[in-house]
Structures are given as structure tokens and as C-alpha cells.
Amino acid sequence: MANSLTYFLAISVILVMLMFVVDQAQTNLAEDNAISSQTKLFNYDGSHIAQFDTGNYTLDEDIANQLPTGTGDANVDEATGNVFTDTYKTIKNWLLETTGLKYVISVLNALPNFIKLIFPADYTSVAFALGYLWNALVVFALVFWLKGGGN
Amino acid sequence: MAFYGSNAIINVVNDITTNITGSEFLTLLIIVLILISICLMFRMPLELTIPLILPLLIVISIQTNEIISVLGVALLYAAILIAKKWIAN
Fold it and tell me: Rounded to an integer, what distance in angstroms lies between the CA atom of residue A55 and that of residue B8?
């Protein structure tokens, strides 16, 4: 189970979970202590964990409902494309949407946003460099995983 | 502190972080160093300090913008530890 992609995915998912829990804890403490200018750590609405929420932070009891519902629409342009490009586009969109690859990849967006948060305004270039490292390594791991290599 | 006087937890944290040395960052550094020294003294793994340091950082970072970077690094460290130990080992 331990290949590079699993490691990246695991860190991202755990980080989203930790940030959500810490943000809840901070919100509760800020309410108890009447702190109005609370530092906002986590954007819940755009996060991956919000996709699992059925309202008031409850999980859906049927885990099958969490499966991606992509239709695999070909989304080709009849005016400009030819049979080769249309076939490629169809295959790519099917892989990304119907198999849920897009769903998996969206988890990995957590860390670049997180890195941007923890570096203040003067150090955005450092955040950019670290984010590049993360994104490039994830893409390499994804390619090697699709190719069939373990590590 | 700007938010002093409403409830117990924040007051305790404010007391220990300002009254000991006068600077909450210096006090936090001293607390972390003491915890790490205790861990080293009893030959325990250093990652066991994270459950003790994280709550302190969480409470302090509610009202202090500057400490949120340190909280972020601690969270990332905790995430890497959990991933290494239980998921991708």
C-alpha cells in the first residue's frame, strides 16, 4: 500500500481533517471567550471535507453515495476537432470524471493552500517554491502510479 | 492582552505566556524546550511532544496572528507522523 501517491494522499486527507478539527476547536473557544477577531484557519466551504457533509456535520450512512457522479461527457468541439483529438478528449474526460480521478486529485489541493496560509505576506515566494515542490512531486507520483510503478 | 477577562482558558494561557517572561513567544519557546528536554531525558520519541504542544498552540493562535505559522508547521508535522505510522508505513 505504501507508494508515494498513497503517502501524498494520506498527508492531504489527514491535514484536512486536522485543520477542520482545529478550526472547530478555535471557533468554540472564541465563542466561549467572546473573541471577535478570531484568526480564520480553514475555509470549510471550498474544502474536500465539505463534500462528505449532509448538513450539520453529519456523514451519509451509505458510503456508496460518496461515489463520484461524473457523466463522462465527451465535451468535444464538432467544428474544429477531428476523430483523433475527439477520441483523446473523450477518453481523458471519462478517466477524469467517471472513474473519479478528478475527485481523488482534488484532495491534493489541500496542501498548497495550507502552505499559502502559514507563510505571511513577505514570504509568498517561499510558499510558492514549496507549493511547486509539492505539486511537481504529486504529479510525478501520479504518473508513475498510472504507469504501474510502486514507488 | 486585548481579550483578557472573559473566561478561564484564555486567561490561564495569557497568564502563563505573559507573566513569566513578559513575552508570550519566549514563554512558549521555553515551554516547548522543557517538554523536549523531558522527552529526551526519559528517552521517549520526540514526536510524543506534539499532543502536548498542539493544544497550547491552538489556544494561543486564536488571538495571535503571528503564531499561526508555527501552528501550521506543527499540524503538518502531526499529519506526516500519522500518515507514516498508520496509513503509509
Answer: 32
